[in-house]
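A further point concerns the way the authors explain their paired sequence and structure data. Each protein is reduced to its one-letter sequence and a matching series of backbone shape codes. An entry of this sort, consisting of the sequence and the corresponding backbone structure tokens, reads as follows:
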Amino acid sequence: MKIALLSLAMMVGQSTISVSDRVPHFDVEALCKATVATDKAMGLTLPESYDNCMRDENTALKQLNTVWLQNSDTLRNQCEGEATAGGSDSYVDLLTCMQMADWAKSTADAPKLRGASKNRNKL
């Protein structure tokens, strides 16, 4: 019996995936319920509906599943921290963080615009 348990433990240990290698699990149902309640309490004219919130969160999760491993551990950890700050764990926030990092990376290599600078002809 002990040998069987040890063998099972070794097999499970070998198949364990690092936390940063998979998209974190968020309780978006609770997030969406809280969002709806907050919007209602604030008396917003166009409050977020539960269905729209869940649709947005699930769409973001699907997109994250395709891009998660394309980003560095550092960025994934940083974005996860931002997406969970304040207790509102959101796949939309996580995806937005990663998209903004991609955008910043792509624009860093773009040529600098000189526009109507007075120094334009001095370069």
